[in-house]
Amino acid sequence: MGNQPKQYLEILAGNPHERTALNQLINTSFSIAKTYLRVKYFSAADPKLGWSDNIDDIAMDAIVPLFVVNGSNKLGILTALENWKSGIKDDSDALFFLTRVIWKRVEQTVVKLIKTRDPIFGKIHKNLSTCISNNPFQKINYLGKTFIVREGVKEITGLIIPEKEFEKLPTYLFEKKQHKLCNGLLDYLEKETQYFPAIPMNELVKKIKTLYFASKIPENPDAAIDAVPAYIDDIFQISINKIKDKLYNHYLKKGKLTEDECDTILKTFYTISQEMKNGGLNHSLYEYLLLHKPALTKNDFYDNYHGILNYLLGELKKNIYLLINEQ
After folding, report:
1. For helices 232-246 and 306-326, what crossing angle results, to 10°?
2. Nearest Cα to 239, choosing from 124, 114, 325, 111?
3. What average pLDDT does range 275-286 have in this prediction?
4. Which of 184, 190, 303, 317 could form a disulfide with 197 if both were Cys (CB 3.0 to 4.6 A apart)?
5. Which residues contact 246 (CB under 8 A, 6 or more apart)?
6. By C-alpha distance, which of 26, 21, 1 is closest to 11?
7. 112 in the Ramachandran plot: left (φ > 0), alpha (ψ -120 to 50) or beta?
């Protein structure tokens, strides 16, 4: 950044169209976002996301809203600067500001991507957000992550519970609904641990989802705050049936696919739907089809099947999202 982040922010605040300052801030923001993604989500030692996405693409998607005009007719980064309470006295302060804003943008982008790929995650996240809004809780951002805290908490101080420790919390804490779930977790963190009473939002969503699908709440799966509806299997089955109908009543009848090809593609989408329920898609369409058609070459796939599978995957996702959001 030329070691002048404070100067470039000041130049941009005075002239949002000044190209040198804008380019320098974009380059540095991109670098911060990319490093954060690589360390937190894509490290070789502990990859939390099994995606094949290019990190550069995700990083750029994250920072773009900061450098386009928003609803206030200002660049997003300048709106964030106006809302920054800590002040910027030197380049260290400026870099701290950029880091915090960009980490938050990256987290928002990752959550948005997860919701798109994993409708169950999206449903739980939506229900939790509603719970927070309707009860004496609030979301607070700390070190780029979103936490659930009690209403009125101004900032997080002290230690926050690490992800691995959160995963080890007793299962009974999650056998509650809505207000009781969040309140019980906050009480436990405050009274039984050394950690600040703040619940990591994404980790809670993943925990609820894991418990539901692992049947660790067998007596009452709805105890998972109504987050994963009991009818979720029906939603996926209805969506798969629509894919089946499209395959046999369109592609087969019009001679675009043989019956064997339709059968194979339908099996492929059963596999895809199971992965979507259990965390999202981790492979390419070619790799999924290859599971059921072992002799398939890449050339054959792209010549004959890629367009069809890509279209049907879009239809499957659309059907699932529509059915979930109707509930």
Report:
1. 140
2. 325
3. 73
4. 190
5. 312, 315
6. 21
7. alpha
